[in-house]
UniProtKB/TrEMBL annotation:
SUPFAM superfamilies: D-aminoacid aminotransferase-like PLP-dependent enzymes
Annotated protein name in UniProt: Aminotransferase class IV
Keyword Cytoplasm assigned: no
Keywords assigned by UniProt, alphabetized: Aminotransferase, Transferase
Keyword flag Transferase: yes
Family label: Belongs to the class-IV pyridoxal-phosphate-dependent aminotransferase family.
GO MF term list: transaminase activity
Cofactor(s), names only, from the UniProt record: pyridoxal 5'-phosphate
Amino acid sequence: MMKFNSFILNDDMKEIELFDESLLKNGKCLYEVIKVKEGVPLFLERHIKRLHNSAKLTSLSLWVEDEYIEKALNKIILKNEVKEGSLKFVLNFDEKVFLAFFEEVVFPSEKDFSEGVSIWTYKRERDNPNAKVLNMDFRMDLDKFMKEKDIFEALLVDRNGYITEGSKSNVFIVKDSKIITTPIKDVLPGTKRGIVLEICKEANIQLEERNIKEDELSEIQGIFLTSTPFDILPVKEVNGFKIASAENVLIKKVMHLYSGMIINYIKNKSIS
């Protein structure tokens, strides 16, 4: 599962060989995944804010302070000497356990960003879309589907035929010279989703939050995904149909502005 040498269990740094995956499968767990770039946990403040929101939605009480989480994450980054990676922390409320570890994640290639990736729709809904609750069965089911289809991501479609989000991403569609995304009440409030909304507002890009029917996919001009591991990623193929998202002017503009935000965030963290 992981190739890194150490993980954090509560206050202790442990050898990776001692990692107990049952702590992820048993009990009520909330989690966050943070991308590390140049040794900096990107947009950490936004992730911690979302953790508090997930706890509120699930009526769970956090027993660790924000400062504790930040120190633990910086500690494990230094211990594993990671410049770029996917850092996950989990709170198991039944066991009162805090875990932090690096996931073995394959980030999108330069080709993926320049040409786009393939995706497919899948009829499935989250029980509580606004809360980042760990559900291993849900994840395994979707991973199996994506492997069978040989695709990068699956788009979840609800019982009413609306596209909600990706299995591990938020979805944005370009149609009629504007960007459309699912209303926040129906999806996990991704940190990158929030950033894209801010970018659109500041750059005067027309954005609409509304439910998107699956059958609208034949009418769109572009589609992109946002998530912690792969940032902003264009899509080249949906359900076998080609789409030139990587060449879309609006998508290229959002990707460019987002890259600038990353550079500034790392720069400001390095100074502080």
